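User: Reviewer 2 asked us to show a designed sequence for the structure in our supplementary figure. I'm pasting the structure tokens here. Could you produce the per-position amino acids so we can include them in the response letter?
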């Protein structure tokens, strides 16, 4: 009976550890992306799509990371801005869930 209790305690401890670790992995950190906003092809459902290439990593060794911006960024097309947000992957594309903008 003690082996069963020890096994149950071990399983319970492991379950608690896994459950507490999941939110930490699920949360991405906010990043800053500086670049020129470009108009992209809108989604089939009419969602406006814009793009921005991150100019901060133009060291020549790595190609710049591009992000899609969902929503109306028409006022910023052709302008160099910094957007802050949470990076996500949607259908294989890098999308930035923007939280704030600096010009």
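Assistant: Here is a per-position design you can include in the supplement:
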């Amino acid at each position: 009976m003690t082996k069963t209790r020890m096994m149950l305690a071990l399983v319970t401890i492991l379950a608690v550890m896994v459950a507490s670790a999941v939110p930490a992995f699920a949360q991405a950190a906010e990043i800053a992306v500086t670049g020129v906003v470009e108009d992209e092809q809108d989604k089939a459902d009419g969602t406006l799509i814009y793009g921005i290439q991150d100019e901060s990593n133009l060291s020549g060794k790595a190609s710049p990371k591009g992000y899609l911006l969902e929503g109306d960024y028409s006022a910023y097309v052709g302008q160099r801005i910094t957007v802050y947000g949470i990076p996500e992957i949607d259908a294989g594309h890098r999308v930035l869930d923007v939280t704030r903008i600096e010009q």
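For the response letter, you might also mention the following. Strands lie at 31-39, 49-53, 66-70, 80-90, 93-102. The domain at 31-102 is CATH 2.40.50.140 (OB fold (Dihydrolipoamide Acetyltransferase, E2P)).
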